[in-house]
Design a protein that fits this description.
Blueprint: E1 5-9, E2 14-18, E3 26-32, E4 35-40, E5 46-52
Antiparallel strand pairs: 1-2, 2-5, 3-4, 4-5
C-alpha cells in the first residue's frame, strides 16, 4: 500500500505532500502559481509538491485529502 505524507505549516502557510519518502538529495522546481515540484535529483521523478500561501478555512482542524488510485501506466 502506498503512503502519502502531508505536512501543513500554518505559520509558514505551506502544504507539502510527499508521494515517496523525502530525500536529502532532492531538488525543487517552481512551476508558478505558488506550486513547487519536489524531485529526486538522480531520476528526475516527482516525489512530492509544495503549495505556498495555503490557509486552512477558519476554525478548521483538518486538511481533507482525496486520492485516485491507478496503475503507473495511467489505466
Amino acid at each position: 500500500m502506498a503512503h502519502i505524507r502531508v505536512i501543513h505549516d500554518p505559520v509558514g502557510e505551506t502544504l507539502t505532500i510527499y508521494f515517496s519518502e523525502p530525500q536529502a538529495d532532492q531538488v525543487c522546481e517552481e512551476t508558478g502559481e505558488g506550486v513547487i515540484l519536489i524531485k529526486d535529483r538522480r531520476s528526475g521523478e516527482v516525489i512530492g509538491f509544495e503549495r505556498l500561501y495555503f490557509k486552512a478555512p477558519p476554525g478548521s482542524q483538518t486538511v481533507t485529502v482525496e486520492t485516485l488510485a491507478g496503475d503507473k501506466s495511467g489505466g
